[in-house]
Structure formats: C-alpha cells, structure tokens
Amino acid sequence: MNEYKPTIGLEIHIQLDTKTKLFCGCSSQFGEKPNTHICPVCLGLPGALPVLNEKAVEYGIKLGLTLNMKINKESTFYRKNYFYPDLPKGYQITQYTIPIASEGFLEIKTEKGKRKISIQRGHIEEDSGKSIHTGDITESTYSYIDFNRSGVPLMEIVTYPDIETAEEAYHFLVLLRKTVRYLGVSSGDMEKGALRCDVNVSLSKSNTMGTKVEIKNLNSFRSIRKALEYEIKRQTEMLKNGEKTIHETRHFDEKTGATKPMRTKEELNDYRYFPEPDLPPLLLNETFIEDIKNSLPELPVQKEERFIRQYSLSDAYAYEIASSIELADYFESIAKATGKPKEVANFLMGSIMKFLNETEKTISEIDFDEKKFIEFLSLLEKGIISKGIAKEVIVESLKTGKSPKKIVEDKGLIQITDENKIEEIVQQVLKENPEAVSRYLAGKTQVLGFLAGQVMKKTKGKANPQIANKLLTEALNKIKQ
Ligand code: ZN
Ligand code: MN
After folding, report:
1. How far apart are the CA of 199 and the centre of ligand 2, in A?
2. What parts of the chain have a pLDDT lower than 50?
3. Ligand 2 centroid to 126 CA: how many Å?
4. For the whole model, what pTM was predicted?
C-alpha cells in the first residue's frame, strides 16, 4: 500500500482545427514549407492589428460545453509577456482572469469504475512559432524558427488536481482526444503537436498538497503514463527516506523512462499579464451559444452505450468501435444496410481491423462498402463460402478492391457441399491416418477434430464443415461395427 496519495493535474493544449489562424487570415495548415503562412499580424510587426477568428470561438465553446463547462458571456484577452525567439511580439495573446469556459468535468471510466475529473478552465490563446535546433554541440549549431505555427488557435484545458493515478490521467487523455475528434474541433494528433500535455504531480499523506513537480516533453499518452508512474515512485521513495521533494520542472527521457530536472525558460513566473488593448472583450449572446449546444453530436461514451443497447454488441466491441467516429459511422451504416450488426461487428473487429493494422490504413481509406458487405454476408449465409474461407475473401477484397463474388469465382473458393465429393475425401483421410482411426475406435473421440482438420486441409478449407463432420462420424461408426 502506498501511504502517500498522489495528486495529479493536467494542462492540455489543443490545437483548434480552423482553416485560418486565430487573429489573421493566414492558413493554419500543418506541415507546409517553413515561413510560407505568415503576415504582419502573426509575425508581430509594429502596427499590425489582430482580428478574432469566429470559428475558433465556436470550437472553443463546443469543447467547453462538451466538458460540462460554463460558457462565460463576457471574456477578455490578455498579453502574457515573455521573451523567446519564437514569440516575435514578446507576448502571447491569451485569456487570463475570465476565460471563455470555466468549471466543468469529464467523466472517465477505468477498471475501478466511473469518476468525474473536474476541470478548472478552458481558454483560447495563440500558439507560438516553432524553434528547430540542428547540429551538434561540437560543431556549429543552428536554430531555425518557423512562424507557420505562430498565431494558430489553441484551447488550453486545465484540470483541477483531481487525478489520483497515472492510469486515470491516461484514461482522461484518451477520452479527451476521442471527444475533440468526435466534435471535429481538433485532429488531436500528438505527433503533429495538435495535442500537447504538461502534467504536475505531488504526493502527500494528508489533505494538504505536497510539493508540485511539473513534467514536460511528453510525446505520447504512453509516455505520460510512464512518466507519472516513475515520478510517483521517485517521490514516494524520497518522502519515505525523510527527504524533501522540491518544486521543479522535470523532463521525461523516453529512452530511460526516467524524469530528470531541467532548466526552463520560465524560471520567473512573472508574465506581467495585462489586458490586450487591441481586442475588445469577447461578448457572446445566448442564441450563439444555444445554436452550438444544439449542434453537438453524440459523444463517444453515449455512442458506446447506444451500440450496446441497440445492436447488442459486447462492451469490448462497443468500446473499440466507438473509439473513432469513422469506425463507428462505418459500422453503423453497414449494420443498418445488412441488418446483421453482430456479424458486421465480428468481421470488422476481426479480419478488417487486422488488415488495417497491418497496412497502417484507416477505415476511410478502404473500399469495402455496404454493397460488398451485403454480397459477402449473403455468400456466407447461402453456404457458398465457409466461415474459414470468409476471412480469406474479405482480406482479398480489401487488398484488390474486387467484389467478394468475383473473388470466390476467380479463385474457386466455393464451398463443397456435394456429399459424394466429401465422402471421397473422408475415405482418403481415413486410409492415410490408420493410427488416428484406431485411437478413435479405442474411445479417444477427440481425434475426430484432427481428422476433420485433415479433410479441411485437403479441400483447402472449402468443405462444408458440418457435412464433413457428419460423414466422418458415419464412416468411423461403420468401421466400428
Ligand atoms: Zn498571419
Ligand atoms: Mn498556454
């Protein structure tokens, strides 16, 4: 038992997926040639004036409402002053005293059950440019700055220190990412920097909070979980040995799985915040907020629960399928078209997912539509193909784009239901496996499975398994007599 209770808080920056930046008309597209999406506003040139992007506001409200937050009808922008080369204005425009959204929660589900994680605030702000450091310390080192990212809209979500385990933090982030993708407000891709997360953790025996340690450089949810686990262990050991933990920022090393102290650019947390004089307060009217509220889609957890109710899916399948909106939409359209949700879920979670994982494709990149699925299920139902062959047909269709029927015809995969043909093969198998036959006759009836397998092997999986089993049993019983 760990007598020290961890307290974890998260600060998440979510890039809002608007076409243009927060205060200018430059494209916010990721991955373009450096410094091609820039203008006087996002370069911070003197005299340039910011104009707020309405779409970013709408997305911020969407996310705020979904996280059960109060949307503030009047919020304000501030200047957060600090010096860094990728921040040409010398300040970041952000929200401070009154953010666009405050006081909410996200309910997560872990192995231990459901828990509401409280959220303190959600504010809109602009991103900085990106510094790229190259070279080696022994040779000349260069730093480059790409301002394409400068001014891209972000929503920063700050939780209360409400999270008690690394696992809860992980579940919170997974659900948050799913949620922003469902809403269509962000790609949530960590590798593209569209979702960035800083964590802070402290340990305490009592209700008074311990000393807070911040961890940065977390590139994946897995790293976050590992960094937290490491940090909880490190701090527990220190406290147990009577040592004191210090307030510091630590860096997570992916390779060693350890956290190390780091120097930060923000040693002094004095940002000299002051109201942004170039932007009026952000005033929202009730109708604007109501309209957004009414446009909110079904959310991941709701969808999952509905799939269980409506299509009798297992908890695990419903969770997996609802984990991505594309997968969920695909499932639902095919389930409706075929009227066979359970079969669709089985093949989707089986052969199709396996194919997607192997080829690193997404569901929207494959061509196995309603028409093909209906045709495929009908081949199976009519007994034209066996269950074993069905997997092969699906994979072949995914690979080539050919229709299931065409594949069955071209490759001669039609199930053999002709009893005479199967009988012939049964006799061959019995002849070739005298030892197995005598074991069966001696009462080891489980040998039947092996013999049936031989029949399937000889027919390349095409024999109808029920008929094969029936004929095998009949033949063996005959020998017995
Ligand atoms: Zn610009
Ligand atoms: Mn921020």
Report:
1. 13
2. none
3. 8
4. 0.84
